[in-house]
Design a protein that fits this description.
Helix content: over 70%
Shape: rod-shaped
Radius of gyration: 36 Å
Number of helices: 2
Order of helices and strands: HH
Number of strands: 0
Keywords: Membrane, Transmembrane, Transmembrane helix
Number of domains: 1
């Protein structure tokens, strides 16, 4: 082999070495990017799970409050309306008032649910 051929081979080997190093850097960069992307996905899933848990708790509280309201109506308001019926009084106005009171009692619950949902949407 003459020196010209040796020089060409050395030059080609140098180019090949540089290309290999460049590929190695690209692969490392892709590996780091993929890891960061997975981390972001896992973080989003965790936040979603937390949001679902909070929503479930709010729904449970609303359900409990609704059950309490139903219990109050059954124990306190319904006997009164039954008494009015027994007296021969129609009691339509009383029932409307009871419905209004039920709405007033449940309003703070609805506000709490709306506030919790607003926090989740941020």
């Amino acid at each position: 082999m003459n020196s010209s051929q040796t020089t060409n081979i050395e030059r080609l080997l140098g180019e090949l070495l540089n290309e290999t190093r460049s590929l190695r850097r690209d692969f490392e960069r892709d590996r780091v990017d993929a890891k960061e992307s997975r981390t972001r996905v896992y973080n989003r899933v965790e936040r979603l799970e937390e949001s679902i848990e909070i929503t479930a708790k709010v729904a449970a509280q609303a359900r409990e409050a609704s059950q309490k309201n139903t219990s109050t109506i059954d124990k306190e308001i319904k006997p009164q309306t039954d008494r009015l019926k027994n007296l021969g009084v129609k009691g339509g106005g009383f029932l409307a008032g009871a419905a209004l009171m039920g709405g007033l009692v449940s309003a703070p619950i609805v506000q709490a649910v709306v506030a919790a949902l607003e926090k989740l949407s941020r």
